[in-house]
Design a protein that fits this description.
By secondary structure, the chain is α/β, with parallel strands linked by helices. The chain has 2 domains: 6-164 and 320-352, Quinone Oxidoreductase, Chain A, domain 1 (Alpha-Beta Complex); 166-297, Rossmann fold (3-Layer(aba) Sandwich). It has 11 helices and 17 strands. It has helices at 46-52, 103-106, 157-160, 166-176, 192-204, 218-224, 236-240, 258-262, 286-289, 303-315, 330-338; strands spanning 6-12, 21-27, 34-43, 70-77, 89-92, 95-97, 120-121, 140-144, 149-150, 184-188, 207-212, 228-231, 245-250, 265-273, 294-297, 322-325, 345-349. Strands 3, 4, 5, 8, 9, 16 and 17 form a 7-stranded mixed β-sheet that branches. The protein is globular.
């Protein structure tokens, strides 16, 4: 068993807004219930860019190694590990620990941990060893087995990586608000989250509509499983679709006219915020009270639900549409994400680190 910290290569942002560069980082010694994972692939999430550029405030730690869409193979396990063995195909999502004792943790909702530690992010948080956590843009990672997911054999490791964040981020509200036959679901934005929301909602049996700024990706959206596709830059869309939807998932991080989008909901419908804009947004209460509509939010998923999502995706042949890149293309990929120039998720081949 690994009895001391190990040094691995990674890509880190040395300071807010600085380009990422190749560095070495230390991984903690393998504990009793830890697994050492050889990382094979790491997805690039828009959250990575927000953190690397300090767009959600000046907190966090630098240098920071982003990456919370991680797939790989277990290289070694601690003596108390019971769930996994060397050679298992596994993944790590947005958090690597929590208090384990609060009501939410006991209910498998670790993402909403209210304990002293809170949800411990995969990067830019404080780990159990007191050191800043560092993410998946690296060669390996050490994680407690309770926060590791099993990747079904039916899912390729590269295309499965984005499921660990983008997949569960969209699956969770679709499951919670019971998307399925007879339900009309709209997905705002056809990007990394949006394209998986379309696939998952379609597999659940819902009638799916994409709401995008333009019709540029219409053929893609219909191919992914959408039944309808409309441009929000055409103001007649909001008139034609008024009162149409049971559920709207807003997957974009840019500011929206929330009132106009809420007007697309049926009586009692819900719009769920998944993307987090850099700046606060304002909203009149009238679109809510006039039709008993709700504006809600959803944050990833707990460990049980994330495993449920992976199994659902394997059963329905759902994985991310990806563009595989080398590690030295990360900075270029960041700029392309901001320009919406990716179909639909960048995934880093960590063998190139």
């Amino acid at each position: 068993m690994t009895a001391q910290t190990t040094t691995v290569y990674a890509y880190a942002a040395p300071a807010p807004k600085a380009p990422l560069e190749r560095v070495t980082i230390a991984r903690r010694a393998l504990g009793t219930h830890d697994v050492l994972i050889d990382i094979k692939y790491a997805g690039i999430c828009h959250s990575d860019i927000h953190i690397a550029r300090a767009e959600w405030g000046e907190g966090g730690f630098f240098p920071v190694v982003p990456g919370h869409e991680i797939t790989g193979v277990i290289a070694e396990v601690g003596p108390g590990v019971t769930r996994y063995a060397a050679g298992d195909r596994v993944g790590v999502g947005c958090f690597v620990d929590s208090c384990r004792e609060c009501e939410n943790c006991r209910a498998g909702l670790q993402q909403y941990c209210t304990g002293e530690t809170g949800m411990v992010g995969t990067y830019s948080a404080t780990g159990r060893d007191g050191q800043p956590t560092q993410g998946g843009y690296s060669q390996s990672i050490v994680v407690d087995e309770d926060y590791v997911l099993r990747i079904p054999d039916a899912l390729p490791l590269d295309a499965a990586a984005p499921l660990l964040c983008a997949g569960v981020t969209t699956y969770s509200p679709l499951a919670y608000w019971q998307a399925g036959p007879g339900k009309k679901v709209a997905v705002v934005g056809l990007g990394g989250l949006g394209h998986l929301a379309v696939k998952i909602a379609h597999a659940m049996g819902a009638e799916v509509t994409v709401l995008s700024q333009s019709l540029r990706k219409k053929n893609d959206g219909l191919h992914l499983g959408a039944d309808h596709y409309h441009a929000t830059s055409d103001l007649s869309t909001f008139t034609a679709l008024a009162g149409s939807f049971d559920l709207i998932l807003n997957t974009v991080s840019a500011g929206l006219d929330l009132g106009a989008h809420l007007g697309l909901l049926k009586i009692g419908g819900t719009m769920v915020q998944l993307g987090v804009p850099e700046h606060p947004q304002s909203l009149s209460a009238f679109p809510l009270v006039a039709q008993r509509r709700s504006l809600s939010g959803s944050l990833i998923g707990g460990i049980p639900e994330t495993q449920q999502m992976l199994d659902f995706c394997a059963a329905h042949d759902i994985a991310a549409d990806i563009e595989l890149i080398r590690a030295d293309q990360i900075n270029e990929a960041y700029e392309r994400v901001l320009a919406s120039d990716v179909r639909y998720r960048f995934v880093i081949d960590t063998a190139t680190i």
